[in-house]
Fold this sequence. Notes:
The protein has helices at residues 7-13, 20-27, 64-70, 76-86, 103-114, 138-160, 166-188, 199-211, 218-229, 252-260, 289-300, 309-325, 340-355, 374-393, and strands at 31-35, 50-54, 95-99, 126-130, 240-246, 263-270, 330-336, 361-366. The longest helix has 23 residues, at 138-160. By secondary structure, the protein is α/β, with parallel strands linked by helices. The strands form two sheets. The protein has a four-stranded parallel beta sheet with strand order 2-1-3-4, sandwiched between helices. Helix 13 links the parallel strand 7 and strand 8 (361-366). 48% of the residues lie in helices and 12% in strands.
Amino acid sequence: MRDLKHLTYFEDLLQEANNALVVQAQAEGKKCVAFVCENTPEPLMNLDNTFGVRLHAPNTGSMDIATYYMTSLLCETSRSLLERAVEGGFNFADCVIAPDGCTMINRCVENMELLKTMGAGKDRFFYEYMEIPLKADDNGVELLVLQCKNHILKPLHDTFGTDVSDAAIRRAVAEHNRVCALIRALGDFRKEARPRITGYEFHVLTLATYVAPKYLLIDKLAETLEEVRSREPEEKAYRARIALVGSEVDDSEFIKLIEDTGAYVCADRFCFGSLPGRDPIVLTDDEDALTQVCRQYVYRGQCPRTMNMEKVYGRKQYVADIAREYHADGILYEQIKFCDPWAYERTLGSVMLRADYGFPVLSVDRPYNIRSSIGQMRTRVQAFIESMEIKKIQGGVR
């Protein structure tokens, strides 16, 4: 297929946390609100004079310093983020919001604070820690509303003079929904028998919306959508269509590795992906915007932290539903090494999706930077694809 006009631009935004659009937004006088978990309501960090950026550590190499403080038994995401913070890679942030999505990421941010890795020369820099509900119910919604008031809205207003009114939240949600609409429209092309966008390209575009100011991306996203609409797809068919499920995927090279084997990543049910992370937020006029935002984050979330049984079983049903909707031949269930919440979820999900829903499943743990084990992972993915091809030849059922 013809190269996307702005793909290199979006790829460049992912090469460092302090990317060109972060620099531009701060030059315009906006404050950068860094966050580390998908359970943090994004629109609340894009109010008035602030913009949210999800911390990530591209091209991670050694994690020796972070391992000294956090041990080698904690997940590579948390250690990669701490390592990058110690290196000074997150000094652009004006504050950090850290929900207790898991103890590992919480410990990561606590070490950032104790080691004074951020905020140099910024007398108004602050850290905030949020409590996140364990159940998707009305009590959970009330808890999240209270936490957002105390640990996002109040400190932003008191520190930076941010407008945190209901009207400001509604404006932020409207901008959020505009980005969501563009990403989901691009993602819908993945349902086609001959897709006009690769899984790698889609992941680059989606991840950019988490790590750069949204309002500066909208024009190029809209232009890219129009470009894809008129794009001619590849003539050659993919060997298999794969739904990628699990913990966060910051490394686009992992998607490229899968697609270099001849497969196609057709759906992305992982942290900071588009499903459900780029679902629009629906607001009505008969209730305050904050409560509505929090309710939708609590009930639509697919994080394994949520432990009521409806959500535990619902997460597997959700994966099966999107695998069918996006015509996946199989499911690749992945987790970052030493991630406890997703380790349990991956074990249960892999068994249930295979036994109860009939999907072929490859279950893997992987490093934060795929380059450290690229050969082994490629071999496993190739074997998985070949096994699905053999079943098709033999007329087997999934």
